[in-house]
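Regression test case RT-17, inverse folding.

Input:
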């Protein structure tokens, strides 16, 4: 095991074609481009009232972003804090080239917030696993 290098480009493209057919073309990158950013919203006194953590992934085929965490202090909800954080996040992800942004809502209230913010319900081949121990 090792980190990929530019010399691995042909092998990476060959394997990505297994997943994506001809859509994994010569623009496929030799390594995954990943970034993460934490956004915060504060009040006039400097108290943090909201937090959003997002990630961006691009391996040369359909770059995407994920809202990993979004939480607003209960006293600051319904004041636009979550919307402002989400707008900043989506602007950042769009600037990086994200074609889609994913989020997982843990409650119907959270889902309604995202739906009101322009997200659409989806389903698909998503699976998850607990962290590996050992």
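Golden output:
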């Amino acid at each position: 095991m090792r980190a990929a290098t530019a010399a691995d480009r042909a092998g990476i493209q060959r394997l990505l074609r297994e997943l994506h057919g001809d859509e994994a073309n010569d623009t496929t990158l030799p390594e995954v481009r990943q970034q993460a950013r934490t956004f915060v919203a504060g009040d006039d006194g400097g108290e943090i009232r909201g937090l959003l953590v997002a990630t961006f992934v691009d391996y040369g085929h359909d770059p995407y972003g994920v809202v990993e965490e979004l939480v607003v202090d209960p006293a600051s909800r319904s004041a636009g804090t979550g919307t402002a954080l989400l707008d900043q996040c989506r602007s950042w992800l769009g600037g990086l080239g994200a074609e889609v942004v994913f989020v997982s809502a843990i409650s119907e209230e959270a889902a309604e917030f995202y739906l009101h913010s322009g997200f659409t319900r989806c389903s698909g081949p998503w699976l998850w696993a607990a962290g590996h121990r050992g």
